[in-house]
Amino acid sequence: MGRPRRGQSTRSARRVSGAHWGQHRPRPGSALRGSGRSLLSMGFQPMGLHTTIARLATLCIAAVVLAPQPSVAEVRQWVVGRDEGAAWREHELLSTAMSFDMPGTIQLVAFTSKDNVIPSLTWVDGFPSGYVEERAQALIWDNVAVVRPLLEIVDGIDTTSTHLAFKRFGIAQDGTKFFFDLGTRFPANRIAFFPRLEGISSEGRPFSEDYIRGYVLKVNDGASFNERDEPIYAPIKRVDFTRENTTQIDFPLQFVRYIELEVTSANPFELAEFQLFGTGFAPAGSYRSKIIDLGEPANFSRMEWTLEKLRQSGDELVVEPAADANLTVVMRTGLDDSPRVYYEYTDLFTRERQVVTEDEYKALDESVRGPIDDDQVNWSLWSPPFTESGQPIQLPSPRRYFQFEVRIESGAILDGLRLTSLSVEHTIPPVAQVLVAEISQLDIPRPPGDVPIVTAGDFTTFAYDVVAQIEETDTGFDALRILTPQSTPVFRQFFTGEDGVEVTPDSVQAKLGSLTIFFSSQRPEIGIHRMRAVFDAQIFIQGTSVEAEVFDSQAEDGVPQRVQPGDANPEVLTNALRILTTAASASRLVSSLAVSSPVFTPNGDGINDQVELIYSLLQLVKPVEVTVEIFDLAGRPVHTVLEAESTSGAYAVAWDGRDDQGQVVPPGLYLAVIQVHTERETLVRSSSMGVAY
Question: What's the pTM?
Answer without folding.
Answer: 0.72
